[in-house]
Specification:
Order of helices and strands: HHHHHHHHH
Number of strands: 0
Strand content: under 5%
Oligomer: single chain
Distance between the termini: 30 Å
CATH class: Mainly Alpha
Structural class: mainly alpha
Radius of gyration: 15 Å
Number of helices: 9
Length: 162
C-alpha cells in the first residue's frame, strides 16, 4: 500500500460522518485538494517530452499525503503522534502541521506557517482553491476576498522561494 493510499484510508476514517456546508461528504474536500495539488506540480511537465523524475514523483506522493490529511488534526481526534505511528515521514507530519490551525492563530498566522513549508504551501494553495470553488462570490464576499488575498500571497512567496 502506498503512503497516499494509507493517508486516504486514515482521512476517510477520521472524517467519517462529517459533511461540508454544502451537504456533501467532507472527505470529498481533502480528495479534491490532493488532486489540485498534484495537478499544480504536474502542469510543469504538461506537454513536455521529458519523463517526470523519480524525485518529483516522490514529492507528489508526499504532497498528496499532506493534502489528504490537511484537516485531520484540526477537525478530528487524530494527532501528529498518530500520523508518526502510522509511519508517515517527518516531512509529511511537518507539512500537515504547517497547515493546521494552532491555538490562538489568526488566519494570517496559518498562511505564513504554510508558506514556510514546501509541502504545506502547495497544499494550502490547493485548499484555498477548492474552498473558493464552493463559495458564492457575492454571499461569501468576505471569505472570498480573504482566500483571494491568501492565495495571492502564497503564490508570490512560492515562486520567489521554491
Amino acid at each position: 500500500m502506498s503512503n497516499y493510499e494509507k493517508a486516504l484510508q486514515i482521512a476517510e476514517r477520521a472524517h467519517a460522518g462529517q459533511c461540508r456546508r454544502n451537504g456533501g461528504l467532507y472527505i470529498e474536500h481533502p480528495k479534491a485538494v490532493a488532486k489540485i495539488a498534484e495537478e499544480f506540480i504536474l502542469k510543469e511537465y504538461h506537454g513536455s517530452n521529458h519523463e517526470i523524475p523519480e524525485f518529483v514523483l516522490d514529492f507528489i506522493e508526499e504532497l498528496k499525503c499532506v493534502a489528504i490529511l490537511h484537516d485531520t488534526v484540526e477537525d478530528t481526534d487524530l494527532t501528529y503522534d498518530d500520523l508518526r505511528e502510522a509511519g508517515f515521514s517527518p516531512s509529511i507530519v511537518a507539512g500537515v502541521k504547517s497547515v493546521t490551525e494552532q491555538d490562538g492563530d489568526t488566519y494570517l498566522n496559518k498562511v505564513q506557517r504554510a508558506a514556510n513549508n514546501e509541502l504545506g504551501i502547495i497544499a494550502k494553495m490547493s485548499d484555498i482553491t477548492h474552498n473558493m470553488s464552493d463559495l458564492d462570490r457575492k454571499k461569501g464576499k468576505h471569505f472570498y476576498d480573504k482566500y483571494e488575498l491568501a492565495k495571492h500571497l502564497l503564490r508570490e512567496y512560492y515562486y520567489k522561494n521554491y
